Each structure stands twice: as C-alpha cells, then as structure tokens.
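Try it yourself: sequence plus PMV, in.
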Amino acid sequence: MSESIVWRCPSNIALVKYWGKKENQVPCNASLSMTLQNAFTEMRLRRESKKKTGIELTYYFEGGRNAGFEQRILQYLERHIACFPVLKQYAVQIHSQNSFPHSTGIASSASAFGALVLALLSASGYEEDNFMQRASYLSRLASGSACRSIYPDYALWGQLDGVTASSNDYAIAVEEVHESFLDMRDAILVVDDEPKKVSSSAGHQLMKDHWYARRRFQQADNHCLNMLNVLKTGDFIQFVSIIEREALALHAMMMTSEVYYLLIKPGTIHSIEAIMQFRKESGIPVCFTLDAGPNVHVLYSGGDEEKVNTFLKTELAPGLKGIIYDRIGKGPQKMES
Ligand code: PMV
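Structure, out:
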C-alpha cells in the first residue's frame, strides 16, 4: 500500500525584510511579506507501508535525486521528528518541483520548506484547527522566511508591540487590507541568474555584531507597524517609500558589515533608476524591492499592469536575462493526489 499527498506552497517576497536572527530562526526584527501566486513548489509525498527505526526518506527534485537538499531536509527532520509521526512509521518518498527557475530572485527555500511541512503534517494526520499556524511554526524552524508563505496575501512574522497575536514563533495573516492592495503584481527582473555568492545564513550571521544592527532592527519593526497601517488605509505613496527604503537598507547592511559584500550589479542600479524615473514621469505608484541578490522585484497594482508591463518590456527587457511575471497569491493549496 502506498499513499500520496500533494501540497503546493508559494514563495513570498518580503516588503519589510528579515535580516538577522538568533538561535532556531528567531528573528531579530519583524518582517512583512506578500505571498506570490505563480512561483510555487509542488511536493508529492508518498508513504510506503514499511516500518523502520530511523528516518527513511528519498528526495527527488524535478525527476532526479538531489543529495544536497535531501541532507538539509534530513538534518531538519531529525531534530523535529516528534512533530511528524508519519516518519516514525513509514519510509517516505518525496517528489518536488518548482514552477520557477532557480537563482532568479525567487526564494525557493520558502516555498520548498512550506510545501514539505504541509505535506508531512497532512501525512501525519494532523487535523487541529491551528493547522496553518502549526505549519508556519514548523516551516520557520526549517527556513525562517518560509513561515510567511503559509498565508494568503500578506503575512507578518515577528513580535510587535501593540499587534495582538504577532509572534516570533510563526507568522500570522495580515487581516485588514485595503482592496487596492489585493490585486498587486510582482514582475521579477532577472539581472543575473548565477547561484548566490553569499548565502542568507552567512548574511544573517553578519548582523550579529554589525555596527548598525540595533537601529536597523528598530527601523524594520517601525516599518512593519507603518506598513500594517498603509495596507489598511490604501496609501500607495507610503507603500512605495517603505518598500524602497527597506530594499536599500537590506543591501546597506551587506555593504557595511565587518565582512562587507555587494550583491547588486550595474543592471540592478540601471533598473532601479529607470523605475524611479518612470514613476516620476507617469505618476504610477510602481516601486522596486530586492532580496539577497541582484534581481529586482517590481511591485505595482493590477490596474496599472498594461502601462507598467509595456515600460518593462520596452525599456528594461533588452538588458535582462528575463522577466518573470507574478502576482499576489492566495497561499498554499492541497492538491488532488
Ligand atoms: O529565510 P532566509 O534565511 O532565507 O532569509 C531571508 C532573507 C531575505 O530574503 C533577504 C529577507 C526576507 O525577509 O525574506
């Protein structure tokens, strides 16, 4: 007997960035993200009826074995096996695939660990009312920002004074969102598709004794509070200004850490300047954000899609490796197996 469970989990893009952590992915500041729709990991978990002692897991990524990621998964599962009873009774096979290419500025660990935890919880027969919160908690332990991918639209992760239910342990859904922020687009400008030069883990570590760490963490918490208000009221001007300041603050931290490094490329700066210029000339509230890499996420409203896409195609596409069009999404989905 073998039984399959399939979950699809999207990636997310941080509007307010998580950068700096303590033990076990406890964040040094709160962060807030938008869940994507088209960029997702789909994971099929098959349990075989075979009793055993240790964890028996085989991981296939897009048809082939992926020893590196399998190891990372195993390390995580060995620490948290008590949370996934299925692993105590069955050997499991996992087949995973991404809807988006690697190294293009879309966080694949967020979607992959989100999908993994959702599939394992389902396969373990976990049916409590707090299923999503539990999935957020467990995926945070695997890869911090994954905990935000569990919710539709916008998610907040990190304890914030005055925000009931906010927690460092898991993300929560942002409930009060003005309708004009529920139809957002994210076009990812692929400036460079080389694998990351510096891992996020190394970057988080460098915040430990960073000269600006204390003020940066305060700034991010403050941006989260302001962003919650902006999302509620529909204030596009503030939306743009918080998001761009956050993107530049993240990279400023990298450029000013003890071991300093630079992930942005000439193409990143060219795109940023063109977006700012286009915003000024058109009056359209379009803005950019950056993850820990050179690729640029362009955020804008669905109502401005035609004009912004024409601008991106004509002005920017010729100098890029590609553009990936995504939008705000409704969160993870259990699929027919
Ligand atoms: O979840 P990690 O450890 O891959 O860190 C993510 C860090 C950023 O993507 C740069 C910011 C964020 O909040 O997603």
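One thing you can check immediately is this: The mean pLDDT is 96.
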